[in-house]
Amino acid sequence: MVRIEKFEYRGIRYLLYYPKNYVKGKKFPVVFHLHGAGSRGNNFEEFNGSIILKLLEEENSPLSNAFCVFPQCSEDNWYCVFNSLCKLTKHIYHQSFTDKKRFSISGVSMGGYALYSLIMCMPELFSKALICCGGGMYWNSGRIKKIKFRIFHGEKDVAVYPEEAIRMYNRLKEAEADVFLTLYPDCDHNCWEKTYSNFENLQWLVE
């Protein structure tokens, strides 16, 4: 049985998933996940159907070896609560269970945009970032070049155009960042289904 606790910090409610081998006093990798627009609200039931949450229930999931943090956006978008999101991020980073060398983040769609903004504000905190169908301030990519990236996008996406991912990838490559881009030729907006179903991506996040 996965241990899950519900918390609220600075007005943001979040779920905290414990690693299956949790021992008090030991440090663990942390995965901080930002959801897309479909999970907004004040009720964690909005998370129902989330592929990454379903995978946490899998006994052999790489995520079961890490603390996983799932904040919920109660407003129209993450930027409406961005100041609180930054404070929550720092709060988790400074917890006694956090392995500061393995503090990673993932985000999808609306959460992918917020992810780029968050790591540009605090690039020193994060080790890795996995982004599905997101985009960001590509002209500022040099600021986050020390973070390792995996970027994913569906070529048929008409909600967030794949050019958003391509721009970020190109600028990060120019900045000599460790970055990989995967474009799914037959996928539209929900490229996170393919991405998170690949356990190798999840293993990469927690390594």
Which descriptors apply to this entry?
single chain, 207 residues, alpha/beta, Rossmann fold, eight-stranded mixed sheet, 26% strand, globular
Structural overview:
The chain is of the alpha/beta class and 207 residues long. It has six helices and eight strands, in the order βββαβαβαββαβαα. The chain has helices at 51-56, 82-93, 110-121, 163-174, 192-197, 199-206; strands spanning 4-9, 12-17, 28-34, 67-71, 98-108, 128-132, 148-154, 179-184. Strand 1 (4-9) and strand 2 (12-17) form a beta hairpin. The longest helix is centred in the middle third of the chain and has 12 residues, at 82-93.
Strand content: 25-35%
- In CATH's first tier, which class applies? Alpha Beta
- Could you name the ranges where pLDDT drops below 50 across 5 or more consecutive residues? none
What is the tally of beta strands?
A: 8
Mean pLDDT: 94
Shape: globular
**What's the CATH H-level superfamily name?**
Alpha/Beta hydrolase fold, catalytic domain
Summary, kept brief:
By secondary structure, the chain is an alpha/beta fold. The chain has helices spanning 51-56, 82-93, 110-121, 163-174, 192-197, 199-206, and strands at residues 4-9, 12-17, 28-34, 67-71, 98-108, 128-132, 148-154, 179-184. Strands 1-2-4-3-5-6-7-8 form an eight-stranded mixed sheet, sandwiched between helices.
List the helices and strands and how they pair.
Blueprint: E1 4-9, E2 12-17, E3 28-34, H1 51-56, E4 67-71, H2 82-93, E5 98-108, H3 110-121, E6 128-132, E7 148-154, H4 163-174, E8 179-184, H5 192-197, H6 199-206
Parallel strand pairs: 3-4, 3-5, 5-6, 6-7, 7-8
Antiparallel strand pairs: 1-2, 2-4
